[in-house]
Structures are given as structure tokens and as C-alpha cells.
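Usage

Read records sequentially. Each one opens with the input sequence:
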Amino acid sequence: MSTKKKHKQECVVNKENDVPEVKNKPTKNEIIGSFLADIEGLSANAIMALHVTSNFGADGSAKPDIGALRTALEKSTTKVKAGDLSDLETMLVGQTHALHNMFMLMLGKIGTTNNIDHLEAYARIALKAQNQSRATVSTLNDLKNPQRATFIKQLNQANQMQVNNSENFLNSENELLDVQNGERLDSAATGKTSSIDSNMATVEKIDGRKNNRRKRKIENECDERRQE
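and closes with the structure output:
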């Protein structure tokens, strides 16, 4: 008994000596910011606003709960992120039927009035509901049958274009190594003397002794002509 009491006292002592963790409480602005960034919470709040006067259950005593609604929306979001689009498909099917019923309802109201303004309003609403129903069916079809083939074809075309551009760039660099007329550039090859201008012919090797004798001969001829 003494041992148990001692252990109990130690626990109490340890409990009293524990240092509580200090946590900064979020400010009001932070709480509001978190709420506005909570997509499921905002969606649940909007749905609740639509059913604020609605009663559920056999006796009408059940009321919608925003916490339970947010949890349901969060589960649906998790399914979509995992690739399960069944909830979205169900929603689109329901919207299609609702819009179709609105279209039929407005058509029925057209036959109940002779007022031109009412006729125009009913017809406008009916045509809008029909157009939205068609758009919803088209969205549902795209969701069930995504155009992957078109995406892959465009991706292949882009890759092919990139490869062709790379090949053209490499070919243009290789062409710089070739000479016109099909010859290959060779910096060590000896060029041929052109026959168009004889002055451009190859210069002979200069011999200094021959040039000196020729110079003296010319000078002697000039002196003889001066003496005459």
C-alpha cells in the first residue's frame, strides 16, 4: 500500500512540475482568413443558406448540420483528388435533368398566357435552360470520354517539330564546311595561279647579285648617253 501511495504521490508531483506548452492563440484575422480559405467550409455555408428554412425528417424536426455537410464535401473532394469522378458525374446528371425539367415547365407556361411580355420571358428562360442542359451534357461527355488522342497527337507533333528544327540547325552548321562547286575546304591545299591577269603570276626568286649587275649596266648606259 505504501508503495502505491508513494507512486501516486510521485505522479502528482511530476504532474505539478510539468511545464505547460505555450501556444500562441490565432488572432481574429487569422481565424477569418482560415475560414475564407476553407473551400469545403464556404461551400457548406452556402448550401446551408439555401436550406435555412428547410425541414428534414418525417416530422420535420431535423435540421441540416454544417459540420456534417462540410465532412461530406471533404470526402467528395478526396475522391476527386484520387481520380474518382463519380460524384461529379452524378451531379452533372442531376443538373441535366433539372435543367430539362425547367425547359419543359417554361414551355408549358407559354400556353397559359396571352401576354406578350410573359410569353417572351417564358421563351427566354426555356431557351436558356435548354442551352445550359446541352452544355451540361457536353461537359459530362468530355468527363467520361477525355480527348486523350488529340492531346497525344499534338504532343507528338510538337516533339517532331523540335527534332526537325534541331536537324536543320545541325545541317546548316555542316554546310559551312563545304565549298561551292562540291569541293571541300582544305587550308593546306595549294591554290592555282589565275590566267586572267598575268601580273598576278607567281613572283620568281630574287637574286641580289644579278640585280646589282643589271643596275650597274643600266647606270653605265646612262653615262654613255650623257657623254654623247
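Summary fields computed downstream for this record:
- Residues 1-15 have pLDDT under 50 and may be disordered.
- Residues 27-84 form one domain.
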